[in-house]
Amino acid sequence: MRIVLGVGGGIAAYKVASLLRLFTEAGHDVTVIPTEASTRFVGTATWEALSGNPVSNSVFDDVHLVNHVRLGHEADLVVVAPATADLLAKAATGQAGDLLTNTLLMAHGPVLFAPAMHTEMWQHAATRANVETLRGRGAAVLEPASGRLTGADSGPGRLPEPQAIFDAAMALVQSRSDYQLPLAGRTVTISAGGTREPLDPVRFLGNRSSGKQGVALAVAARNAGATVRLLAAHMEVPAPAGVDVQRVETAMELREAALAAAADSDVIIMSAAVADFRPAEVSDTKIKKRDDTADPVITLVRNPDILQELVEQRNASRAGSGQLVVGFAAETGDSQGDVLAYAQAKLQRKGCDLLVVNHVGMDKVFGQDSNEVVILSRAGSEPQEASGTKTEVSEAIIRRISFELNHVSPRA
User: What mean pLDDT is predicted for residues 129-151?
Assistant: First the structure.
């Protein structure tokens, strides 16, 4: 999503750096437009470094791009924080003296103001009238938080916390009937990370999964409007904000959680690296290494095929006939066949609707920030390739899932 983040000239401008980080980590493309006054609090170099985009507050920079028109036209969302009394007044009266106020006049998408000012300014009749004017035109104006202000005073006028502004912005976009997100109203369950199968209280059998791809999928699904449930095995990255996280460790724990979550899910994405085997016996105490004993022999037993069970559960339930089940396959080729040959066989064996195929290796996929996948369909459509950062790959996968949900007839 393309977001314009306007920064007003108040001391709370420093908090907006955290808001910008929330937007960018969620995968959004953010253009920051600070007012001239705000650059006395936070310089343009900070906004450029955090957003990855050039920053200007003048209509005379890059005139050939017609930014004073283009930015508002192209923005899916405009957020102004802190929205000072001065900025609210200029927006309410339609002034266009700089790049930000021009952009507000040209904005076609939703606009959110997050006010911050002294209590008397917020409660002044002029500010209240400006707020009502903006709300009457369809803009969202948050109520400021209450608490300690710049000086010794306390009261309403603090900038809401960055997470609260982020959540309000995402809710605003989802509520707009003229901007319908592709997964709005859908529930998506995603497994991520690698399972760990205990040998004793200290040791376990595990894998190299970092959870990066699963987390990126959760972010992409959330940004597409879905209610996201993340079944998180061992991950080396934090879970994203705005999703329901359920922690699991073993394949059996993941199986129980996935089968339960599937009951009310429109989409299930099994991107976790699930152990195929687990120790037949788990020692209650640490297995000791002694010179007078033989090397231990570890007997393994198969773990259940969770993906196949999810498909069988879906097929047995009339209520789940429209559910989309997406599997992941981490494959290596050998003398018996290449990666896609093994993946096609797995797709038919598992019966899932889509299979996302990774060609893995010691230095491929696991723990990396980029990925290359092929999306196979049980319906027989041409394989789809996607490559780039794991964020970009996840967005491609979510777009494909959205297409399948919105264009494929429910299953019998």
Answer: 87
Domains 2-175 and 187-407 share a fold: yes
What's the CA angle centered on 217, arms 232 and 401, to 5 degrees?
Answer: 125
**Of 83-92, 117-126, 374-383, which range is least confident?**
374-383
Q: How far apart are CA 35 and CA 30, in angstroms?
A: 16
3 state SS of 230: strand
pTM of the model: 0.61
CATH of domain 187-407: 3.40.50.10300
List the domain boundaries for the chain. Answer: 2-175, 187-407
Report the catalytic residues: 207
Give the burial string for 246-276 (b: 16+ CB within 10 Å, else e): bebbbbbbbbebbeebbeebbbbbbbbbbbe
332: left (phi over 0), alpha (psi -120 to 50) or beta: beta
pLDDT in tens, 30-79: 999 999 999 999 999 999 999 999 998 877 777 766 677 878 888 889 99
Instruction: For the chain, give the number of residues.
Output: 412
2-175 falls under which CATH superfamily? Flavin prenyltransferase-like (3.40.50.1950)
